Amino acid sequence: MVEASTAQTSSRRVPKADLALIGREAQPVWFEYGPRDVALYALSVGAGARDISFIWDGAPNGMRVLPSFCLVAMNAVGPQFNDLIHRYQKVEAGETIRIHRPLEPAGRLLIRARIEDVVDKGSFALLVTKIHGEDAEGGPVFEIDCSAALLGSGGLGGLPARTAAGERRPIAVGRLPDVEVSETIPETQAALYQLNGVDDPLHVDPAFARSRGFSRPILHGPCTFGYATRVLVQRLCGGDPSRLREIGARFSSPVYPGDRLSVEAWTPKDGVASFQARTQRGPVLTHGHAVLG
Amino acid sequence: MNDVSMPSLIGWKTEPVVLEHTWNDVVLYALGIGARAEQLGFLYENAPGGLQVFPSWAVVPEKRLTRDLEAKLDHTRMLHGEQLIRQFRPIPPSGKLTVFAEVKNIYDKGKAAVIHSGATAADESGRPVFETVTVGFYRGGGGFGGDPGPKAEPLDPPAGTAPTWTQTETIPAHQHALYRLNGDHNPLHIDPEFAKRSGFDRPILHGLCTYGFATRMIVERACDGDVSRFREFKARFADVVFPGEPLTVSGWKQGDRHIVQASTPRGIVLSNAYAVVE
Fold first, then answer.
1. What does pTM read for this prediction?
2. Which of B22, B23, B26, B31 to mutate to test the interface with A (most CBs of A within 10 A)?
3. Strand partners, A25
4. Which of A180, A198, B231, B265 is the most exposed, having the fewest neighbouring CB atoms within 10 Å of its CB?
5. What is the model's pLDDT at position A177?
6. Scanning every residue of chain A, which has its alpha carbon at the shortest distance from the alpha carbon of B187?
């Protein structure tokens, strides 16, 4: 959402990004979940009645958990950082998820989070957070590289604009996508996605959205990302989420509930697939990559 | 086969239970009965004027408390016949309710028994919030020498009169999957194989989901969106609804009462229905 919203940043003065944020850690939090959470998440990223293994724990071959469900686990530590960054105008800018072990339909995970970097991008600053999910024995289950843009908080002075570690290059594809799935995002989808433990009025409160320079509440970037994850699992992994080992993308522009979302993917070269997503207005997920097993 | 005797269920009653709910629960319910994005007052916990709760949310705690009663009965012989809710004051968007459930009456219709059960809730100050009644037709449960009960009052819309209000909405194709997250886990509403064995091509919508859609439309069209004006809604489940079907709900105003009817293109699905509003 960086490019589209930078120009719209409201006139409210926001502080420059504070480099002292680097290294701040959240208190580890236990995240407990069950099939109801898994089903709610799947429905909130557009799973339908036919995608029965994503929405029903009684499905014939068992319930399957979308890899991007770990973004719900991440929400468990979100409130701790909110106090640190509430002065900024934050929008989600991108994620990369790595799955070490497929998520079970129910479980208890220890979530750790640390702010890894604050990157000056000129008009905005990029806040890069690393989140780890571990099982009760300390075994790694997932990790997330999460980027948020702090709008209007760049230009730190003296520090050149640079690229954060692990940031992906744009995908260079010279051929038509192998997979293209278009879906209309229901008008209520942001309200539904909010029930995954998100506490951000930008996605539901029209007055708040206007104060941040948007004409109305925008869809959560991770919701769009979840749509893309589901499409990739269904179309490139034969419906088996355990084959998706890593997925990442940049959120380049806002999606509004009611938009027509098209996810385009290119089948893997050396195990790495490329993807992007766009609405009728243009690209919304860019730099998309997925590592398949 | 479970063969509990009907007289033994008369007087069944739970202890009062304190149930806590949050804005998450009531927003999930609102989405489960098709609330639209512009109905912010039902979807956003910090909505101007506060979050409102659709009165039919009352069936969620009711279901939770009558689970033990349902477990005593053979569910393949049970048909959800009617539902009634009475609201005494708007349901708080979060907090604790003290709720108990009971069997109110069991009537003997010869072959079938008609079981009236329900829940009663009070708020943290002890003030009554709602009362619900579920009428279940229990096949093969009659013939125990009980009271046949009163004859049902016929409640048809006035012939040849256009409804005071009418609203048609298409039930989204995945609505049953969303509604069941409110705690209604009957496989008939999710499992295609179970639905086929029960004689349906595919999973059907929960009757109480249809009832919720109708309640929402009553709030919108007969209460001007203000749940505090809602008093009572009763309906008979006349036929099933499939996800993806258009649902039309109409009301005929008669004093403080609206005769209500709901239908799909296949026919009437909620009959003998009325709502009382202020």
1. 0.94
2. B31
3. A114
4. B265
5. 94
6. A58
Question: Minimal Cα–Cα distance from B129 to chain A, Å?
Answer: 25
CA distances to A68, B20, B87, B131, B275 from B121, rounded to whole Å, are 39, 12, 10, 6, 20
Question: Do the beta carbons of residue A77 and residue A24 sit within 8 Å?
Answer: no
Residues 6+ apart with CB under 8 A from A162: A119, A120
Contact across the interface for B174 and A48, Cβ inside 8 Å? yes
Strands, E assignment, chain B: 17-21, 78-87, 95-108, 113-122, 128-138, 165-170, 230-237, 246-254, 257-264, 267-277
- Are the C-beta atoms of A111 and A85 separated by less than 8 Å? no
In chain B, how long is the greatest CA-to-CA distance? 56
Please calculate the CA angle B185-A60-B204 and round it to the nearest 5 degrees.
40
For residue A256, give Cα distances in angstroms to A215, A279, B37: 10, 9, 12
With contact defined as beta carbons under 8 Å apart, do A78 and A102 qualify? no
From the number of C-beta atoms within 10 Å of its C-beta (0-12, 13-18, 19+), residue A291 rates as middle
Measure CB to CB from residue A43 to each of B36, B178, B191 and give the nearest one: B178
Give the Cβ contact number of residue A160 at 10 Å. 7
pLDDT of residue A83: 81
Token pair in block for residue B197: 């064995």
Residue A248 has pLDDT above 90, yes or no: yes
What is the three-state SS of A39-92?
Answer: HHHHHHCCCCCCCHHHHCCCCCCCCCCCHHHHHHHHHCCHHHHHHHHCCCEEEE
pLDDT of B268 > 90? The answer is yes
Phi, psi of A280, deg, nearest 5: -60, -20
Q: Is B106 exposed, middle or buried (0-12, 13-18, 19+ CB in 10 A)?
A: buried
Give pLDDT tens digits for B46-93: 999 999 999 999 999 999 999 999 999 998 888 999 999 999 999 999
Distance CA A144, CA A129 (A): 8
Minimum distance, in Å, between the CA of residue A36 and any CA atom of chain B: 6
Q: d(Cα A167, Cα A160) in Å, to the nearest integer?
A: 16
* Chain A CB contacts of B29 below 8 Å: none
Nearest to B118 by CA among B29, B212, B230, B12: B12
Q: Is B31–A188 a contact, with Cβ atoms under 8 angstroms apart?
A: yes
Strands (E) in chain A, as ranges, are 29-33, 89-99, 107-120, 124-134, 140-151, 179-184, 244-251, 260-269, 272-279, 282-292
In whole angstroms, give the CA distance from residue B103 to residue B146.
15
